[in-house]
Specification:
The protein is mostly helical.
Length: about 350
């Protein structure tokens, strides 16, 4: 509520600081001070924080579909889908290689960080956990490092947007830059917060680009499961795996389907003006709660305990997303136009 009130002030709006950005800042400050050190507070509030960070975030993303129609989605086109696919595959492959070969990390930790960086942050890491069969501490470290650099995107990309106005390293207007945001920023909520601080056109295309990228998580997890199972069988681990019981089912995210359903409903223009405004106000509140919870869950101590290598890998992935992602966003449309 505090972030919503502050985000409505004229000065902050003029400087591109919205309620979602303020919410995650308040959450991070509180999460590493009073919330973390108060006896019993984390135990009492923890379930609510997790619920906000997971369930309310997905509900907020689903309701975000009331801002879009199928006509808007149609403008994304083949070029946007290819951009998402190129960013995903290149980030995952290079991050996995860098983590295992350059930094000497264990394979599971590298795979988790690579997955979170290339698709949708903590949600992708949690979805990949049963496929990778990682330990709890590996998942915690991967989530913490990815969330940190994803949060940094909220403050970096608006600055890049202003630089792009002079240097044109991405090209196009707000909508094209929104595709860049959606195809490279980690978390869905971070994409929403980043793009909305730039403008409504950027927010619309960023969310579409991000949701297409999130939808790629399902085939990605299936491919990753096949690849890892083949490697285990090749290493003589098949009998041992079968002795441990049935394979864990691949976790497929459901909320992108809800987002698509809401977009389809909104395209029919059946919702009244007042009803739609109420839904959008609720959506803003849900997303602000999710961002605050994300900030509360970002603990500096967890990153410090993990050492430098996971942080370096997350930094490498982040730099690749920012720099190579901009080049991919620029080259793919040019290549399609040339073809």
């Amino acid at each position: 509520m505090a972030a919503t009130v502050l985000g409505g002030s004229g000065w902050l709006q003029e400087h591109g600081v919205g309620a979602l950005t303020i919410a995650i800042v308040i959450g991070m400050v509180t999460g590493n001070t009073a919330y973390r050190h108060a006896p019993g507070l984390g135990r009492i509030c923890g379930p609510g924080v997790d619920y906000s960070r997971q369930t309310l975030l997905r509900a907020g993303v689903i309701l975000y579909g009331f801002r879009l129609t199928m006509q808007d989605v149609g403008t994304f086109g083949l070029s946007g889908a290819l951009i998402d696919a190129a960013v995903l595959m290149s980030t995952f492959a290079l991050s996995t290689y860098a983590g295992t070969r350059w930094l000497g990390m264990d394979r599971k930790s590298a795979l988790l960080i690579a997955t979170g960086s290339s698709i949708c942050g903590a949600a992708a890491i949690m979805a990949a956990e049963p496929v990778v069969r990682a330990r709890a501490e590996q998942v915690t470290v991967a989530v913490a490092t990815v969330v940190v650099f994803g949060t940094l995107s909220i403050f970096l990309y608006p600055a890049l947007y202003h630089l792009n106005a002079h240097w044109h390293f991405v090209g196009g207007g707000d909508g094209v830059f929104g595709v860049y945001v959606g195809s490279t920023v980690h978390e869905v909520a971070q994409v929403v917060a980043t793009a909305r601080s730039i403008g409504p056109n950027a927010a619309d295309t960023a969310v579409i680009a991000k949701m297409v990228r999130v939808m790629m998580l399902a085939p990605f997890l299936l491919g990753l499961s096949f690849w890892l199972n083949r490697d285990r069988a090749g290493a003589g681990d098949l009998a041992k795996r079968d002795a441990q019981g049935p394979r864990t089912a691949v976790a497929i995210p459901w909320f992108p389907l809800g987002f698509v359903a809401v977009v389809l409903f909104n395209s029919l223009h059946l919702a009244s003006g007042n009803g739609r405004e109420i839904v959008l106000a609720v959506d803003n509140l849900l997303l602000a709660m999710a961002m605050a919870a994300l900030g509360l869950s970002t603990h500096v101590a967890a990153i410090r305990q993990a050492g430098a290598r996971p942080l370096l890998l997350a930094l490498f992935s982040f730099c690749w997303l920012v720099v190579a992602g901009a080049l991919i966003n620029r080259w793919v449309p040019d290549l399609l136009a040339g073809a």
